[in-house]
Design a protein that fits this description.
By secondary structure, this protein is α+β, with helices and mostly antiparallel strands. It is about 15% helix and about 30% strand. The protein has one domain.
Length: about 280
C-alpha cells in the first residue's frame, strides 16, 4: 500500500465533471418518430434461436423491434452501415455520450470517421426499471460480448456458442465468407435486455437476472441503412453465467416495420461527421 497523503480526503471530495456535456448534441425528433410509429406495417420477421445468432436488414427510415417471445432472455446486438461495413456501432462512444445503459430517445453511434446516429431507441418496455439499489440497469453498452477466448482463459476448453462466435457464424453465412474473414467485423455490442452495472466496492462488471419477460421489447428507428446481427446469449437471462449449455435459453424475435410513405417527410438521414480528417497534417 502506498502512504496515505495528508490531503487524501480533499482529493476524493473533488466534484466530478461530465466528460461530454450533450446539450449541443443533435437531438432526434421523437415527436416525429412517435407519430410515424402509428402508421407502421410489418415487412419482415427473423428469429434468433437460443445460443445462435441471426442477421437482418433495416432500410433507413424504417423501424425494428427486438422482442422476448418465450422466456427471459438477453441478446447481443451488432449494427453496421449496410453499404459500408467499416462503419459500425461504437459502444465506447455511445457510453461516453449517453452513459452505461441506453433507453428511449438515445442513439447507437457509429465508429470513426462517421460518428453519427445509426439507430435511435423509440420505445423501451423496460424503461421503468431505471437504476436499482446495486447500480444495475438494462440495455448496457459496458460489456464487450461473451467470447470463446475469455472462456478459454478462465475455464479452458473450446466453447463455440458464445455470442462472439454466434455473431461470427451469422455474419460469415450472411456474407458467404469464411469465419476467419467474418470475425473482424464482429464488434462490441449493445447488450439488449441484460441487467448490469459496476460493483460499488471493487468496480467490477456485474450481471443479474434480467427483468425482461415475454412481450417486452426494445424498438429502434434506423437512421441509416442497417445490417444487424443479434445473438440469443447462451447465458439465458444471465442470472448466473453467460456461456453455458445448461442455462435456460429462449429465442428472440426481430421485426422490421415500414412507416407510411408520407410519415417522415420532415426527416433526413444524418450525414457523416463533419471533421475534415486531416489531423493537423
Amino acid at each position: 500500500m502506498t502512504k496515505l497523503p495528508y490531503d487524501a480526503d480533499d482529493r476524493r471530495a473533488v466534484k466530478p465533471v461530465i466528460c461530454y456535456p450533450v446539450d449541443s448534441l443533435p437531438q432526434p425528433d421523437m415527436a416525429l418518430y412517435t407519430s410515424a410509429r402509428k402508421t407502421l406495417t410489418k415487412i419482415d420477421e427473423v428469429i434468433a434461436a437460443p445460443r445462435m445468432a441471426a442477421t437482418f436488414h433495416v432500410p433507413a427510415g424504417h423501424f425494428f423491434r427486438i422482442t422476448s417471445v418465450e422466456g427471459s432472455q438477453v441478446g447481443d446486438l451488432n449494427l453496421w452501415n449496410a453499404n459500408d461495413l467499416t462503419e459500425r456501432f461504437y459502444s465506447g462512444k455511445t457510453r461516453a455520450l449517453h452513459g452505461t445503459h441506453i433507453t428511449t430517445g438515445q442513439s447507437m453511434w457509429s465508429s470513426f470517421p462517421g460518428l453519427r446516429p445509426m439507430a435511435t431507441v423509440t420505445h423501451d418496455t423496460l424503461a421503468w426499471y431505471g437504476i436499482d439499489e446495486f447500480g444495475g440497469s438494462v440495455h448496457d453498452v459496458i460489456g464487450t460480448r461473451c467470447d470463446p477466448y475469455t472462456h478459454n482463459l478462465l475455464n479452458g476448453g473450446q466453447y463455440h456458442h458464445c455470442c462472439h462466435s454466434n455473431l461470427t457464424r451469422a455474419v460469415a453465412t450472411h456474407l458467404d465468407i469464411p469465419v476467419i474473414i467474418a470475425e473482424p467485423h464482429v464488434h462490441d455490442v449493445l447488450n439488449v435486455f441484460m441487467c448490469t452495472g459496476f460493483t460499488r466496492d471493487t468496480g467490477q462488471y456485474f450481471m443479474k437476472a434480467s427483468p425482461v419477460r415475454p412481450g417486452d421489447f426494445i424498438e429502434f428507428f434506423a437512421e441509416i441503412d442497417l445490417l444487424g446481427a443479434l445473438s440469443a446469449c447462451p447465458g439465458g437471462d444471465c442470472s448466473s453465467e453467460h456461456s453455458s449449455d445448461t442455462a435456460a435459453c429462449y429465442p428472440l424475435m426481430i421485426e422490421v416495420f415500414a412507416p407510411a410513405a408520407d410519415a417522415l417527410k420532415a426527416w433526413q438521414s444524418p450525414a457523416r461527421n463533419g471533421y475534415d480528417g486531416t489531423h493537423g497534417v
